[in-house]
Amino acid sequence: MARQLRFNGTGSGGSGCPSVHEDVQSGEVIVHGPPLTDPGDLAQLQHLSDGEVAVVVPRELLVDWTPKDATRQARIIGLDEFEALFSTFSHSAWRLETRRRFASDEATYRQFVETGAADWSVEDPYCELIRSQTAQGKRVERVRIVDQPPTTGQLYLLDNAKRNSGLGEDIRNLWRMDADRLQLPSEDVWLFDSRLAAKLRFDDDDHLVDVELITEPAEVVRYSAIRDAAWHHAVPYEEFAAKLNDSE
After folding, report:
1. Residues 45-78: pLDDT tens digits?
2. pTM, entire model
3. Distance of CA 33 to CAs 6, 11, 21, 55, 67, Å?
């Protein structure tokens, strides 16, 4: 079975070589770069076995992109502490949504399933908070991944986008096949101020259980790169919904 490899980063030139990848299951690190071929150099290497290849990489590549602490424990926070992040961010809050269903707002979800629309409240605490943040010029943005055809849960969120955009959010959508082509992760994550990431963790019934708070610089940079790729290719939800309706 093939490894599940995650691209960590490449050198400052951005050419893709040399680069560092990480096996997300074993934690092993894979480095690739130009091979060391000079016989005089190879003769100085100790313990180089048959079949092994020596590669040359800049020192800063390892400093910037290899895991810093193999025993790092995930910092898990509760939902109250997670919600407080929306009050304390300074500039931007960006979310990647990859799930097909969220077990929240069950009343409006049932209403949507029965009627094809929902009566969205704009007076709950989240709405008031986001309105106050975007009124200060702060950015709240989302990219939502959508299957072909969309699940009922994804259509529900597309309807929800009308309300949240009225709060000042900028919501865009991306087909899952395009997300796969871009090698976007399947994680559901918020990125705050390009400084910390909050990875949402769900149970088997699609309920949000808790959140992993990530501040490791290399991981935050990785999520920032994910954001840039997703945001560049995603389509504003109004345009996405219009094309979806035209295709029906």
Report:
1. 888 888 999 989 888 888 778 877 655 567 899 9
2. 0.76
3. 17, 10, 12, 5, 18
